[in-house]
Amino acid sequence: MEETSVPEINVKQEFYRSTEKFHVITCWVGIALNLVWFISDIFVLPEYWLAFFIFRASVSLIATLILISRKITGINIYTTMFILVLGISIQNAFMWSVMDIAHFQQHAFAYMVLFIGVGMLVLWEVIFSVIILAATIVSNVIFYAVNSQLSIQEFVINGGLLILTVAIFCVFLIRTRYRLTYNEIRSRLELARSKEIIEEAHTEVVNQKKEITDSINYARSIQQSLIPLEDHFNRHFTDSFVLFKPKDIVSGDFYWIYEKNNIVFYATGDCTGHGVPGGFMTMLGISFLNEIVEVKGITTPSEILNNIRDKIITTLKQHGNFGESKDGMDITVCSLDKTKKELQYASANNALYIVRAEKPGHGQEMEIHKADKQPCGFYHVYKPFTNNIIKLEAGDSVYTFSDGFPDQFGGPAERKYMHKQFKEVLLQNAHINFTDQKNLLNASFENWRGKQDQIDDVLVIGVKV
Predict the structure, then answer these.
(1) CB–CB of 174/118 below 8 Å?
(2) Is the pTM of this model over 0.90?
(3) pLDDT tens, 184-228?
C-alpha cells in the first residue's frame, strides 16, 4: 500500500502558513488594547498612572519592534505573541501588587480576561504556555513581596487562587486547541493524497474528541469547586433540597449560598446557553455574588441584581451593537431572615413559589410570586429590579428554579412538562420531607422525559422555614 503519511515539515509549514495572518492580527490588537486600557488606570489608581503607563508602553513598544522586524530578525509570530503575552502578564502582576482589596478584585477580572483570551485565540506549543504560567507565578510572588500590603490569605481568596486555576485551565485549553488544529491540517493534507486515509482520520477524530472531553471535564472540576454542595443548604435550613441536573458535562445553571447574622442569602441562576459557554458565565455569576454580598456588604436582593447586571454589561462590554455578546442570566436572589421569618427576593424572569404551612380547616396553598420580566444582562429596555418582602411562618416552603424542568419535552404527546404540572407536583408533595420531595421530582422528570434527550440544565431548590 502506498505511503499515506505526510512529512512533519510539510504539516508544520502548512500550520504556520494558515495561522500566521490570524496571529499577526491578534498581536496588533493585543498591543493596541494594552495601551487603550491605560485609560482605566487613570481613573482606578490615579497615583500609579505614570508607573502603569511606563509598564504598558514598554511592553507594547518591545512587542511592536519585534513584530515589525520579524523578517529581518527571523523571529516567528508565535515567539512574538509569546513575548507580548508574557510582558502583559508580568505587567498585570506589578499592577496587582500595588492595589488594595477592592481594586485587587476588580483587576482579577482583567487578569482572567487575559488568560481566557489567550486560551481562546492563541495557538502555540505547550512549552510557551508552561513558561508563561511559571513566569506569572514567579512575578506575582516577587511583586507581592516587594509592594503588596495584602496578607497572603487576602491575596489568595480575593483572586489569586482563581486566577491560578484559570491560567492552568487555559494551558490545557491551548494545548488541546493546538493539537486539534495541527492534527486537522495533517488530516486535510493526507486526505488530499489518498482515500485510505479516511480510516486514519476517523481514529484521529476519536482521539480529538477524548481530548476535548478531558478538557471539559477539567472545566467541570473548576465549576464544581465554586458551586456549593447540597449539604451547605441543609446546614442553613430546617429542611431543604437541591435538584441539580446539568444537561452537559459543564452546567449553565448554578446556585450559591451565604449566611451572616442569621440571614441566609442564596441564589438560583440560569445563564445564557449551557455547556462550556454557560459554564464560563456561571463562574462570573458566582464571583460577582461573592464580591457584591460578602465583600461589599450589599444585602438587598434588588440591589444585588442591579450590581450583577452592571458587572455583566461592563465585563462583557455590552453596548447593544449588532453581533456583540448578548450573554446574561435569569436569576433569583433571596434573603431569608430566620429570626424575623421574613423573605426578601428579587428575580430576573423566573418566578418564586411559596407553599404555606397547613392550618386547621385549610389545606396547603401555593402562592406565585412573579419576577421582573427582564434578564440580568444587557436588555433593550431595562429598569431597576423590584425588591419584594414576604412574611413567612414556620413550616412554609419556598421554591426557586430555572426553566429547565418545566420546559422538558416528553410524555405521551411529546410536549413540554409545563409550569402547571410542575406547580401541581410541588403542591401535592410539599407536606413530605424534602429528601423525598427531591426524589419524587426527579422521578417525575425522568418518567416524563422517557427516551427524549434532556433539552436544558435543570435546577430546583426548596427550603423550609
Answers:
(1) yes
(2) no
(3) 888 888 777 776 666 767 778 888 888 888 788 887 888 888 898
pLDDT tens figures, 173-185: 888 888 888 888 8
Three-class SS of residue 134? helix
Buried b (16+ CB within 10 A) or exposed e, 255-283: bbbbeeeebbbbbbbbbbebbbebbbbbb
Q: How far is CA 27 from CA 33, 117, 286, in A?
A: 10, 12, 31
With a CB cutoff of 8 Å and minimum separation 6, the contacts of 150 are 100, 101, 104, 144, 158
Would residue 349 be called left, alpha or beta, if left means φ above 0 and alpha means ψ between -120 and 50 degrees? Answer: left
DSSP 431-454: TS-HHHHHHHHHHHHHHHHTTSPP
- Rounded CA-CA distance 85/82 in Å is 5
Distance CA 341, CA 333 (A): 16
Whether residue 264 contacts residue 336, with contact meaning beta carbons closer than 8 Å, is answered with: yes
Q: Which class does domain 228-464 fall in?
A: alpha beta
DSSP code of 386?
P
Q: Which of 256, 116, 119, 243 is nearest to 176 (CA)?
A: 119
Name the grid cell of 22: 490570524
* Cα separation, 148 vs 99, whole angstroms: 7
345 DSSP β-pair partners? 334, 388
Beta bridge partners of 343: 336, 390
Residue 366: in which H helix or E strand, if any?
strand 366-369
Cβ-defined contacts of 229-235 (< 8 Å, 24+): 232/257, 233/257, 233/266, 233/461, 233/463
Please report, for the chain, the start and end positions of each structural domain, with discontinuous segments joined by +. 8-222, 228-464
